[in-house]
Amino acid sequence: MIGAKDFSSFEKLSEFKVVLGHLSVESFLKNDEARLKFARGNVKIVTAVREPIDRIISLYNFIRVNPNHPMHTAMQSIDAFDFLQSQAPNFQLRFLSHCDRTDIETVFASMTILPLEKSTTLLKKHLEATQGATLKEIEPKNRTADRPGASNLLKRAMLNEDQLDKLCQIHHHDIQLHKRSLSMFGLDSTVN
How far is it, in rounded angstroms, from Cα 97 to Cα 25? Predict the structure, then answer.
């Protein structure tokens, strides 16, 4: 296993068929071999996006119940909505961007974007089809809900309409990114 910080200097990329992990496209392309392969079309990026309001609610809950998180203590006294609206706008679109253009069309043209709701099933099918692998089913689990103190997690339904509207405005492009990932796989989009 190699961390994102060390990936830029990793020199054995050609020995691997698949690289999995939490790595922004920008960080991936800091590796000379990855950048060259990507420019030549020899790298296929497959990633997953989550409904953005649910993503930041999940982040809030994760920090609040994870005593090892560096922001855990401070988070105990931060208003939930203040935290939610302070999160970087359209984080997922920026995370997936790899050039000066950060538009949805550019991102979709350069990679396969799976909706998180079906990402394990779709990724399994993709790897079996492209790598000839036989993989077991992976069942996604909400680990935060299993932690001590998780009985009072923030839920989307606890936000009022004005708060949801404000968050939807802040994360408009990420919402469109997620909706498009759903539609690419024929899934219904019932999010704002």
Answer: 6
Local structure of 48: helix, strand or coil: strand
The type of residue at 126 is: H
Please provide residue 51's backbone torsions phi and psi, each rounded to the nearest 5 degrees: -55, 125
User: What are the structure tokens assigned to 95, written together?
Assistant: 């995370």
Average pLDDT over residues 22-36: 88
**What is this structure's pTM?**
0.85
Averaged confidence pLDDT in the chain: 87
DSSP type of residue 115: E
> Tokens 């060259």 correspond to what residue?
36
CA distances from 137 to 60, 120, 134 (A): 29, 8, 10
Q: Which of 58, 63, 3, 51 is nearest to 28 (CA)?
A: 3
Ramachandran quadrant class, 90 (left: phi over 0; alpha: psi -120 to 50; beta: rest): left
Token look-up 């994870």 returns 66
Residue 74's pLDDT band, with cuts at 50, 70 and 90, is: very high
